[in-house]
From TrEMBL:
UniProt record similarity statement: Belongs to the radical SAM superfamily. Lipoyl synthase family.
EC number: 2.8.1.8
Gene: lipA
Annotated [4Fe-4S] cluster 2 binding sites: C75, C79, C82
Protein name: Lipoyl synthase
Species whose genome carries this gene: Hymenobacter glaciei
Cofactor binding remark: Binds 2 [4Fe-4S] clusters per subunit. One cluster is coordinated with 3 cysteines and an exchangeable S-adenosyl-L-methionine.
Entry binding sites for [4Fe-4S] cluster 1: C49, C54, C60, S286
Chief location of this protein within or outside the cell: cytoplasm
Length: 297
């Protein structure tokens, strides 16, 4: 009798959580979507809808709206959740504010959201382009309300003052996650610095907004602490959405949060003093942004 060697089974890698049905979205179609697609291409505009692989692009573009990304499409940061390209930016177009403002006017947008990549290599973080984009948009489309989703200015408070002085109705800065996960999720940012940026924006008299992604491994009590920290620093509006891995090079999803959990977190945020909470699996920063203009400050 021959003794055969015992082959030990390989240890299987932990299974990734399967994307639930509530996160499935329809492909973008329709005449309105095609019209926005043409305008974005013709004016050589960048949108976070595309660069960020937003799951709501079909719904929002189908309604004739889009979130514009200024200052190029290469970011100086390397956040581990974000699909925007990282590197040394080559684009700094002083004519971009005019092109964005004209596109918004052509699209007859009632509420525009404007965001940007981080431009840490610029002394003013791109603040002058930020302000000019808002000012020109208001001149060409005086009936259009504007939300600006601004990046971390790395404590350059003079740059912040310029960014928020264009006349926009809502100023948003996303903290993205809870404090304990910052080193993993936002390695070049600081939790306390983002809170300080929100605090200074509120002290300047503006309507403030921020967003957090869920499903990165945060605990409920950490989320509640973040809500308390945001309220203490003057936040008015909070968005909560499910983190979705943009590519295999990015952070894995630790957990898929159920719609019932999102509903619970919304109630908890309101109970803790937030004035408005947009909470759901597919919620992103600019989702239903037009509703946030009327939140009292």
């Amino acid at each position: 009798m021959i003794d055969l060697p015992v082959i030990q089974p390989e240890t299987a890698a932990p299974a990734r959580p399967r994307k639930p049905d509530w996160l499935r979205v329809k492909l973008p179609v329709g005449e309105e979507y095609a019209a926005v697609r043409r305008l974005v291409d013709e004016h050589k505009l960048h949108t976070i809808c595309e660069s960020g692989n937003c799951p709501n692009m079909g719904e929002c573009w189908g309604a004739g709206t889009a979130t514009f990304m200024i200052l190029g499409n290469i970011c100086t940061r390397s956040c581990s959740f974000c699909a925007v390209a990282t590197g040394r930016p080559t684009e700094y177009d002083l004519d971009e504010p005019r092109r964005v403002a004209e596109a918004i006017a052509l699209m007859k947008v009632k509420h525009a959201v404007i965001t940007s990549v981080n431009r840490d290599e610029l002394k003013d973080r791109g603040a002058s382009v930020w302000r000019e984009t808002v000012v020109l948009t208001k001149q060409l489309s005086p009936g259009t309300t504007i939300e600006t989703l601004i990046p971390d200015v790395k404590a350059n408070w003079d740059a912040l003052d310029v960014m928020i002085s264009g006349g926009q109705e809502v100023i948003s800065h996303n903290i993205e996650t809870v404090g304990s996960l910052y080193r993993m999720v936002r390695p070049q940012a600081r939790y306390d610095r983002s809170l300080e940026q929100i605090r200074r924006t509120k002290l300047a008299g503006h309507r403030t907004k921020s967003g957090i992604m869920l499903g990165l491994g945060e605990k409920a009590d950490e989320l509640y602490q973040a809500m308390d920290d945001l309220v203490a620093n003057g936040l008015d509006i909070l968005t909560l959405g499910q983190y979705l891995q943009p590519t295999k090079r990015h952070l894995d999803v630790a957990e898929f949060i159920t719609p019932d959990q999102f509903a619970h977190y919304k109630e908890e945020g309101l109970r803790r003093g937030l004035k408005y909470v947009e909470s759901g699996p597919l919620v992103r920063s600019s989702y239903h942004a037009e509703r946030h203009v009327n939140v009292p400050i």
